[in-house]
Amino acid sequence: MIPAIPPGSRLDLEAVEGRPDAVGVGDVAVYLGNCGGFVAHRVLAIEHGPAGRVLVTRGDNQDHDDRVPASAVAFKVLRVTRGRISYSTGGPAGRALARLAVRGGLPWALTRRALTRLLRGIQRVL
């Protein structure tokens, strides 16, 4: 999820297990991956099929999509904290990062310093 969620970030989570409608496009969903560990990926789209609701997810720094049954999602990310940088995923900074990521405009090369400037700029505007 670099650069929006740098490695080592603390994530504040909301349990959504049993509530498949609690996660929407732009949210960061946390689910158990194939390797046995938890995966945090952004929801790009929601598909409905015979098997039910399926989330199309992708890490912000990835080039391929994953399809995850909504029932497999255990948490959604509410807040990201890394050092002195902290933002709510539902707040202005989080929504801006989500819009950029969903549209494919969040470059992996965005440095920590540039991300800090972006977040501070968004906060100043509001």
Word description of this protein:
The chain is of the alpha+beta class. It has one domain. The chain has two helices and seven strands, in the order βββββββαα. Strands 1, 2, 3, 4, 5, 6 and 7 form a seven-stranded antiparallel sheet that branches. β2 and β3 (38-49) form a beta hairpin. The chain is globular, with a radius of gyration of 14 Å. The two termini are 25 Å apart.
Share in β-strands: 35-45%
Helix content: 10-25%
Order of helices and strands: EEEEEEEHH
Overall form? globular
Q: What average pLDDT do the residues reach?
A: 82
Ranges with pLDDT <50 over ≥5 residues?
A: none
Structural class by secondary-structure content: alpha+beta
What is the number of strand segments? 7
Question: What number of structural domains do the residues give?
Answer: 1
Total number of helices:
2
The radius of gyration computed from the alpha-carbon positions, rounded to a whole number of angstroms, is 14 Å
Mind summarizing the main beta sheet? 7 strands, antiparallel
First-residue to last-residue Cα separation:
25 Å
